[in-house]
Amino acid sequence: MPSFDPVAVRADFPILSREIGGKPLVYLDNGATTQKPRRVVEALSRFFSYENANIHRGVHSLSREATDAYDGARAYLKDRLRVPATHELVFVRGTTEAINLAAHGLAPLLREGDEIVLTIMEHHANFVPWQVLAEKTGAVLRFAGLRDNGELDLEEWKSLFTPRTRVAAFTHVSNVLGTVNPVAEMTAFARERGAFVLVDGAQALPHGLDDLGAVDADFYAFSGHKVFAPDGVGVLCGRRELLDAMPPYQTGGDMIERVSVAGTTFRRSPERFEAGTPNISGAIGLAEAFRYLEGIDWAAARAHEHTLLTHAAAELGKMDGVRLFGTAPGKAAILAYHYAAAHPHDVGTILDTEGVAIRVGHHCAQPLMDYLKVPATARASFAFYNNHEDVEAFLRAMRKVERFFGP
User: Fold this and answer.
1) Based on the domain organization, do 257 and 351 belong to the same domain?
2) Burial letters 106-124, b for 16+ CB under 10 A, else e
3) Which among 112, 277, 338, 353 would be 20 to 30 A from 22, CA to CA?
4) What is the spatial distance between Cα 46 and Cα 29, in angstroms, rounded to a whole number?
């Protein structure tokens, strides 16, 4: 049975034992990328040391082994994530490519005056592709705002839908506010009105929100590097009938059915969208990461993360000049804040001298920064392997910032 022991899981991540400037590493930049458990590192080392070869069409042993591992990773992830069929799981470089692929594929279905509904909390990866698509097709972008606590104004979002709404794209979890959107409800609402739905799941899966079948979106995108797997790999899950009707995103080897001087025909999904040699090791590492996560009791892990978040927010909120962003109920363990006396980059630099790694800037969410009326924020984002010592080190480092910049 899955269980959760904060001490044991922390020991599974080798990088957490290192020091920065002679001080223990306190890694609170999990929203940007997560660290990798030892078994993922070992799986990659094993592949490159003993199994490395190109996949498909090779008849030698190494190629067959690599092909089995790559195809096996897709089959495992299909079951693990409750995706209906392996044909509906496309390996890509990450969430950004997944959303661009979907937007490219939906382009022929949009006409001038059609509408794309977004939220103001979207990451640039789920904002700019639709903005570009609107410019190309003459479609109109419509945006839903937020409540004071950072929660999506769901009634406003629903009110944006009209008979011309063709696409609804929204994040599962905000990378700045930590807000967890009611994606199953939103998906059902949008699809009932004839809109295609894409969900950006990059920040959801690292917190165990990985039942894609329950979301039931037309497209669901996520990145490996944010879910304890290698970078350069991700997934676009899409409905088979939509994927097969979409034009190829790239062309090249392994995605063709037949090539002649007279023309080319293309394979069906997923090969249709995996031109050239894919990230074989990345797919293997991604599957291994999810195998590791099978051993996590996610209810307990999320409760642990919430305890860390609550304590950090409460203590940080006591500091003069600190403004916290995102207090929606049930939010993920992401803490964005602005300290009036110092620029976020100065905050991050001082924290680094204490071995504390956070993220500073606009977090690829400039429309949200404009909406919140701040140029940038600092962000501490927690994972299940963080502990109370990490929180205390973070708070001590912030008190150093206060002493340096305060009155």
Assistant:
1) no
2) beeebeeebbbbbbbbbbb
3) 338
4) 28
Contact predicate 201/263, CB 8 Å: no
Q: What integer is the mean pLDDT of 65-71?
A: 97
Both 194 and 341 in one domain: the answer is: no
Same domain, 222 and 367: no
Whether residue 254 is found in the same domain as residue 327: no
Catalytic residue among 25, 128, 341, 364: 364
CA distance linking residue 9 with residue 31, whole number of Å: 18
Number of residues in the chain: 407
Dihedrals φ, ψ of 328, to 5°? -65, 140
Statement: residue 125 has pLDDT above 60: yes
- The string of DSSP codes covering 68-127 is HHHHHHHHHHHHHTT-S-GGGEEEESSHHHHHHHHHHHHGGG--TT-EEEEETT--GGGT
Sign of the four-CA dihedral 71, 76, 81, 87: positive
What range defines the domain where residue 323 resides? 6-30+297-405
CATH code, 104: 3.40.640.10
Q: Does 237 participate in catalysis according to the annotation? A: no
Mean pLDDT of 46-51: 97
Q: According to the model, what pLDDT value does residue 28 have?
A: 98
Indicate whether 36 belongs to any domain.
Answer: no
Tell me whether residue 35 is in a domain: no
- Residue type for 131, please? Q
Same domain as 64, residue 20:
no
Judge contact between 51 and 62, C-beta under 8 A: yes
CB 67 within 8 A of CB 55: yes
81/189 same-domain check = yes
153: phi then psi, degrees, rounded to nearest 5: -80, 90
Note the pLDDT of residue 6.
Answer: 86
Closest CA to 84 of 227, 236, 240, 196: 240
